[in-house]
Design brief:
The chain is α/β, with parallel strands linked by helices and about 375 residues long. It has three domains: about 1-65, no CATH class; about 85-235, no CATH class; about 245-370. About 50% of the residues lie in helices and about 10% in strands. It has helices at about 5-20, 25-40, 40-60, 60-80, 80-85, 115-120, 125-135, 150-160, 220, 245-255, 260-265, 265-275, 280-295, 305-310, 320-330, 335-340, 350-370; strands spanning about 95-100, 105-110, 145, 165, 170, 180-185, 190, 200, 205, 210, 215, 230, 235. The strands form four sheets. The protein has a seven-stranded mixed sheet with strand order 1-2-3-6-12-13-7. Strands 4-5 form a two-stranded antiparallel sheet. A two-stranded antiparallel ribbon has the order 8-11. The longest helix is centred in the first third of the chain and has 18 residues, at about 40-60.
Length: about 375
């Protein structure tokens, strides 16, 4: 590919991450994949395999999903130096890393640092996260979850991610456009706190006898302008949206009447919608959920956030979240096991929520079967 084609391919990767349910973007990505394969670029085969896996998920074909995932893992292993770079070292720890690939690049990553440090205690958490950031395939990554043991490790990883300038860091020339970031003992946050992230310092701690100063969270938010979900120590902090006047809430609601592409492909609107989705105030969150329900499959990029919100007692009125999943149809097939599990958990969900979960699961399964 020449430089112009390369830019077109990278733009297509970003659009695929914005709206994985857009058929026009999918077709364009497959064309780029064919060009890459013709040139012998290992990302070309990864594009084709990733697309086939996505279609198998939409069809609910678990056997084919397993077969394709095996093919992807084998392809990455064959071309690990080109695709993974320094990240290849971490793959020896099977439970330490999980990567989701889309469009030939890493879309989402989960690091469980605990499993690495059991065998290599001399490695610090920020060194391991640095290996991921230095990978040539992480430059467009949208979602990152880092599981650690101690609060001190949360601070160290946060400091590393905040250490950027002019779009690059001391580890990588590219700062990934993260939208969701989780650092803590659990990959699933426990609750949503009231104070905005920029108002709350990440508390100081003592490590090896040396006091470490507070890290102000706005230092972590600023390098990632598209970030709309931040969980530290299992607590989600609402991200700044400015003063939420009635006019601003009305502007969120007005998105329901806009063309889907004018929201999901518009970075400012997309971020505003995501931050409203994770707002502490229920009426703001409800406005965002109404917009996402209108977007349907175009809102599939918000699917991980919606699934996190289904945790027992995480938030009131989970029915609105379930309705969003239902409008996405087959695109939200990954949520079906959770929805079915909710129907029998009498102690954790009320009757209305359990009924809505069962109906949504039935609707999604019906679409998977082509009914």
């Amino acid at each position: 590919m020449d430089e112009q084609q390369q830019r077109g391919y990278h733009d297509c990767v970003m659009r695929l991450y914005d709206a994985p349910g857009d058929p026009e973007v999918r077709d364009a990505m497959l064309v780029f994949g064919d060009v890459l394969q013709t040139e012998g670029d290992p990302r070309g085969e990864l594009v084709a395999l990733g697309d086939a896996l996505s279609q198998a998920r939409r069809a609910g074909d678990r056997a084919l999903q397993k077969e394709l995932q095996t093919s992807i893992d084998s392809h990455i292993d064959t071309h690990r130096r080109d695709l993974l770079g320094p990240l290849d070292w971490l793959r020896q720890f099977e439970r330490a890393i999980a990567l989701e690939w889309r469009g030939g690049y890493i879309y989402a990553a989960r690091l469980d640092i605990r499993h690495v440090r059991e065998e290599w205690p001399e490695f610090e958490p920020e060194e391991l996260v640095g290996m991921l950031l230095a990978s040539p395939s992480a430059r467009f990554m949208r979602r990152l979850a880092v599981r650690v043991r101690r609060h001190g490790d949360v601070v160290r990883v946060a400091r590393l991610l905040a250490d950027t300038q002019d779009g690059s860091s001391r580890i990588s020339p590219h700062t990934p456009p993260l939208e969701e970031l989780i650092i803590g003992p659990s990959p699933r946050p426990r609750r949503l706190v009231k104070r905005e992230a920029t108002d709350r310092p990440l508390m100081g701690f003592r490590y090896s006898g040396n006091a470490v100063s507070h890290l102000q969270l706005n230092r972590l938010v600023e390098p990632y302008p598209g970030l709309y979900m931040l969980s530290l120590d299992d607590l989600v902090s609402p991200l700044p949206m400015g003063k939420m006047t009635p006019e601003k809430v009305a502007s969120i609601r007005a998105m329901a009447g806009a063309e889907p592409g004018n929201i999901v492909y518009n970075r400012v609107r997309r971020t505003a919608l995501g931050r409203a989705l994770w707002a502490y105030e229920p009426h703001i969150r409800k406005a965002a959920l109404d917009v996402i329900a209108k977007l349907g499959e175009f809102a599939a990029g918000f699917l991980p956030s919606l699934e996190l919100m289904l945790r027992p007692r995480f938030m009131a009125r989970q029915v609105a979240v379930i309705n969003c999943l239902s409008t996405m149809g087959a695109t939200s097939s990954s949520a079906v096991p959770t929805l079915l599990g909710m129907t029998g958990r009498v102690r954790h969900y009320d009757a209305e929520t359990r009924s809505a979960a069962g109906s949504a699961a039935a609707r999604i399964l019906a679409q998977l079967r082509g009914k």
